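Long-time lurker. I teach an intro course on protein structure, and each term I like to show students one example going from raw sequence to a predicted 3D structure in token notation. This year I'd like something fresh instead of my usual example. Would anyone be willing to generate the tokens for the chain below so I can use it in lecture? Attribution to the forum is fine with me.
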Amino acid sequence: MKSLKTLLVSLFTVFILFPFFLEGKDKQKEKVYIPPQVKKVMEESVMKGKVRTDLPFSIIKNLYLPAQNQSFLILIFSAKNRDLMSLSFSEKERKKGIDFSKVSNSKFNIFFWFYKIEGDSPMPFKEQYVPVDLNWESGTNPEAVSTFTVCTIIPEGKYLLSMAITSIDLKLIGIVNYNLSLPASTELKEKLSLSPVFFIKSLKELPTPEIPPVVHKDYFIYSTLQLEPKLENVFSVGESPDIFYFIYGCSVKPDDPNKFDIEITYNVKKGEEDAIKFNPYVFDLPFISHQIPLKKEGEKDLEQGKYRLEIKAKDRISGKELVEYVEFEIK
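-- Reply from a regular --
Happy to contribute to a lecture. Here you go:
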């Protein structure tokens, strides 16, 4: 098993140094467009506010990470298991009734229609089709609501995303419209900034990179890393959460274009007072992933309550700095 440091080096190589890796693959999938009957429903939803709720689902949040000069967009959405489990069946089979205990796989469609927001009206920008082939674990509760992810690669900008989930026969359609913003590459080079900071439940190395878009339950795959994010920044007493983020705008070393010199200092604050002060960490890559021990002086656990994690980043080559805060709670 490779070390996390080796994995992050691999990520940096794939997503930053080799821009051809994902472009051709993604463009091939874009040859399939949105069927007219689905496109009409999506357009009415965006332009007239008419929303089809045959299939209720919601986008919980989005994250993003670098993908050369574009962004690797991670959409996290939730839906009731039975709604997705029924999508492979015909209308006749759905009316007759489905024995969900025998459903081990579901095939259905996801369609993206990105509108770029420039001026007063959203302008159609990109269509994308995501064929879904989802396996269900034995004993899955059909009445439970689960969390899923789907990723894609898209340029910088402000967007209105119309996302549709449909049955294979296109009879059932669910629509959600969602606003999102991805940072401009020129802005990212001028100053330091962080990708959305999140904490991970689990991290696993895969033998080969995954080419998006693919739907997964609970986790997403970024190149060769399978990451399961925590949806809420809530931890137990004594827990040492794993943090994950990317620092944009750092300068490479003059004598080594693959290395950086980044200093990170964390402080945990309760109100305006410091609850924990950490010594600085030094990293040679802008991908940051490690545990943060929530221990006070004397190795005492941080008590229950609401806190802020202060992240101070300094590029020791260019001198650029930033300070950001992440809210979290210990229960």
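Some talking points for your students: The CA atoms of residues 101 and 139 lie 7 Å apart. The two ends are 34 Å apart (CA to CA).
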